[in-house]
Design a protein that fits this description.
single chain, 516 residues, alpha/beta, Rossmann fold, six-stranded mixed β-sheet, 27% helix
Length: 516
């Protein structure tokens, strides 16, 4: 075929080929449905935006080594409470008592949760968070009362006297008359002048001896022999001799023997009877003792405990027993207060304060103050005992000073008692807190007592120091406070050893406390 014929054959072949392809395509395509107009189509609902949850800091293992900061906390519009995943078998809130509202409040204030350090542990990072609490009362929970600060109240100031309130002093020696004490008493009386010499020379003194008899004793609550009267140092030698003769006579006088179970070892009970029993008090007043205008110094002298002492739990009783169990019988039958109640040292203190009113009451003693008691031989070697009962009265409500009988230098001991008695004549051992606050509303451990003169602080005392010495500020001293029966006010007693050194005539005692 010539080239001229090829020119029209090639286009024709192409047309035939295209026509065959179109026929084949139409045999394989399925008919399509008629399209719906766009205006009638149903639109799907728009997605609701989900508020982002607080971002939790990634663990250290997922952080870049150079990044050490926490990711910021993001609070959404509707925050959800933190989710907890308790360990299987250990539900976090089995009783349904956990308050989930608190978690919601915490999430709103920007808190984080963490299980670091233990199961289901929550770490609260914000200061204004609400602590999770168990609420068992539900909607009936009473509203929480905000804590009110304790109010500081003041007592009326007390001005110390510039001179002794009076120059009269009654001195009463309450003497153990048991046979076991005779040897010590002879040594004591031989140095009695040391006590007399340490009293002020311009004071009017009276001295008397009261046997420590029980209820059956002839001198139960009665002063023995005559009252010794003298004034000033000029009469001290004669007074000493008369006092020594009186004590020796007491031990040699057969009519002064005590048939009571206690056998002359109930000093506190005899002292109590001398002022509490009207017949005994009137008799002692007729002898010229317990003067209305005189201070009173009581000095116990004994080599063992008072027979009326009630041993505390854990203490080992020391009862003299020679087969008759008399001391035990004395405790059970003679040491009884009104209506069968047990006689206590506080009963003596009440009566003494009631008797003397605002005048100083000085309570001291020459007894064994520690277990370091010298060993002796002989029939009565077991009766050298700690001065239980006497010590409770002297160091407790008596606010006084005991002197150890174990010191062989009785002269020095008696001189110390004389000095203490003289000082106590000028400054009382306790002061009344006069205030309009009822006694029951006063916190006894909150007292602060400041001793001042001319704007200068001489010393500070705290009642809290007595109950907890570790809370006592440096340089301060302890004090005691108690509600005394038949007294509308609280009685404050500064530590006397410190008070003796700090007190000055004319100084002011300021007292303050907090309400309960």
């Amino acid at each position: 075929m010539s080239p001229s014929h090829l020119k029209w054959i090639q286009p024709l072949a192409a047309l035939v080929f295209l026509a065959g392809c179109q026929k084949a395509r139409m045999t394989t395509v399925e008919p399509q449905p008629t399209p719906v107009p766009v205006a009638t189509q149903v639109q799907p609902p728009a997605p609701t935006p989900i508020p982002p949850t607080p971002a939790i800091p990634l663990p250290d293992s997922h952080r870049h080594k150079k990044k050490h900061h926490h990711r910021p906390i993001i609070i959404g519009e509707d925050p959800r409470p933190p989710e907890f995943h308790p360990t299987p078998g250990e539900p976090m809130d089995p009783g349904g008592e956990f308050d989930t509202d608190i978690f919601r409040q915490n999430s709103q204030t920007g808190t984080e949760t963490s299980t670091k350090g233990g199961k289901n542990k929550v770490d609260w990072f914000e200061q204004d968070h609400v602590d999770p609490r168990l609420k068992k009362c539900g909607e009936n929970c009473p509203p929480e009362k905000p804590k009110q600060p304790k109010i500081v109240e003041s007592c009326e100031n007390v001005k110390l006297p510039s001179a002794p309130t009076n120059k009269k002093l009654d001195v009463l020696f309450v003497v153990d008359t048991s046979a076991s004490f005779f040897d010590e008493l002879v040594k004591i009386t031989s140095q009695m002048d040391e006590f007399i010499k340490n009293l002020k020379p311009d004071v009017d003194y009276q001295i008397a001896v009261l046997p420590a008899h029980g209820p059956k004793g002839p001198y139960f609550g009665r002063i023995y022999s005559d009252v010794i009267t003298y004034r000033g140092i000029q009469g001290s030698r004669a007074a000493t001799a008369q006092l020594v003769d009186t004590i020796k006579k007491l031990f040699s006088d057969k009519s002064a023997k005590d048939p009571s179970y206690s056998i002359g070892e109930t000093g506190m009970l005899s002292l109590y009877a001398s002022i509490a029993m009207k017949s005994r008090l009137n008799e002692n007043l007729r002898k010229g003792f317990y003067r209305d205008d005189a201070s009173l110094a009581v000095i116990f002298v004994a080599d063992e405990n008072d027979a009326c002492y009630q041993y505390k739990p854990g203490e080992t009783p020391h009862m003299d027993d020679y087969g008759n169990k008399k001391e035990k019988l004395a405790f059970e039958k003679e040491c009884v207060y009104h209506n069968g109640r047990r006689f206590q040292p506080i009963h003596v203190a009440w009566r003494l304060n009631e008797l003397k009113g605002n005048l100083p009451v000085i309570i001291t003693g020459l007894v064994y103050t520690s277990n370091n008691i010298p060993k002796t031989s002989g029939k009565y070697h077991k009766e050298k005992e700690l001065g239980h009962g006497y010590l409770d009265l002297i160091e407790g409500p008596g606010k006084g000073l005991p002197v150890d009988l174990a010191n062989p230098d009785f002269g020095a001991s008696l001189a110390k008692l004389g000095q203490f008695s003289q000082f106590r004549m000028q400054y009382p051992n306790q002061y009344s807190c006069v205030t309009s606050v009822p006694k029951k509303e006063i916190d006894l451990d909150s007292f602060k007592i400041t001793l001042e003169k001319n704007g200068r602080t001489l010393g500070v005392f705290y009642t809290g120091c007595k109950s907890d010495p570790s809370k006592c500020p440096a340089g301060s001293h302890a004090a005691g406070a108690e509600r005394v029966q038949k007294n509308p006010y609280v009685q404050i007693a500064p530590n006397m050893d410190a008070f003796h050194k700090l007190a000055r005539p004319g100084a002011t005692l300021k007292m303050s406390f907090r309400r309960k």
